[in-house]
Amino acid sequence: MSAGSSPKRRTPPLPGRPVRGSATGRPVMALLDLLGRRWVQRIIWELRGEALSFRALRTACDEVSPSVLNARLGDLRTAGLVELSEAGYRLTPEGQSLLRLMLPLHDWAERWARRWR
Amino acid sequence: MSAGSSPKRRTPPLPGRPVRGSATGRPVMALLDLLGRRWVQRIIWELRGEALSFRALRTACDEVSPSVLNARLGDLRTAGLVELSEAGYRLTPEGQSLLRLMLPLHDWAERWARRWR
DNA sequence: ACTCGACGCTACGAAAATCGTAGCGATACT
DNA sequence: AGTATCGCTACGATTTTCGTAGCGTCGAGT
């Protein structure tokens, strides 16, 4: 490990504690903070099917920088939405229940796109 | 390093054109790019009720920096999700239909929070 | 007319997040 | 030994976000 004991601790958003943009830490605000970080929703989206290795996930996310991917996976693991299994990274049951809320976004986006054709 | 004099235009994510993290421009990827920008989901969330003035919206979003707020409002207006009316900023019908997909996040977050108490 | 306050919004330097590339140590198979 | 993949780290460059100050406009009040 060591990892140089970072001089600045990055705090993943969790319900019940102050997050960016909300001193109250109301759960929905913590969630919006988490989901508003780049690649977070995309990662959840790409894990909708089978488990993916770190590298496969990186490829699925258009070769996202590994430092950011690792940071996001840390956030998501801390939040209890993602876990690393034998087969690779995958959604926890909690993560799957959140994914279920996101799935309708696909069809919505398709309809949205028709306005731009 | 280009000494280019062009002010580097920021392109809001729209379906059908390449966006950050997806050369294809598939609608859902454009949407995830848009929603993954900071404050975007929060802005939609805060506009779930009545129309809000720029300043009221800024206050609702915990005094977010006006430059970022304006940039996001530009993205959202270009995307056809938000419009400026007499009464202030408000969601378009399109934006309201997206909000409807987001509303369940509140209850989900409440349940999520119970794991951390 | 003049001040006052609120409006949408811009400027700009500082700080933080993100990116891109290279590579490490471990493990496994040849 | 050589090759390949694994999760993951380092670190400088770039982009985004932040924080504060303030501009120009408008309508209400005096």
Structure commentary:
2 copies of one chain form a homodimer. In chain A, strands 1-2 form a two-stranded antiparallel sheet. With 117 residues, chain A is mainly α. Chain A contains 6 helices and 2 strands; from the N terminus they run H-H-H-H-E-E-H-H. The relative contact order of chain A is 0.12. In chain A, strand 1 and strand 2 (88-91) form a beta hairpin. Chain A has a domain at 39-116: Arc Repressor Mutant, subunit A (Orthogonal Bundle). Chain A binds chain B through residues 14-16, 20-23, 27-32, 35-42, 45, 61-62, 64, 79-80, 94, 97-98, 101, 104-106, 108-110, 112-113, 115-117, and chain B through 14-16, 21-23, 27-32, 35-42, 45, 61-62, 64, 79-80, 94, 97-98, 101, 104-106, 108-110, 112-113, 115-117. Chain A binds a DNA duplex (30 and 30 nucleotides) through residues 3-4, 8, 37-39, 53-55, 63-71, 84.
Largest beta-sheet characterization of chain A: 2 strands, antiparallel
Work out the helicity level of chain A: 40-55%
Describe the oligomeric state of these chains in a short phrase.
homodimer
CATH architecture of the domain at 39-116 in chain A: Orthogonal Bundle
Looking across the biggest beta sheet of chain A, what order are the strands in?
A: 1-2
Element string of chain A (H = helix, E = strand): HHHHEEHH
Question: Which helices and strands, and how do they pair?
Answer:
The structure is a homodimer of 117-residue chains.
Chain A: H1 27-35, H2 40-46, H3 54-60, H4 66-78, E1 82-85, E2 88-91, H5 93-102, H6 104-113
Antiparallel strand pairs in A: 1-2
The structure holds a DNA duplex (30 and 30 nucleotides).
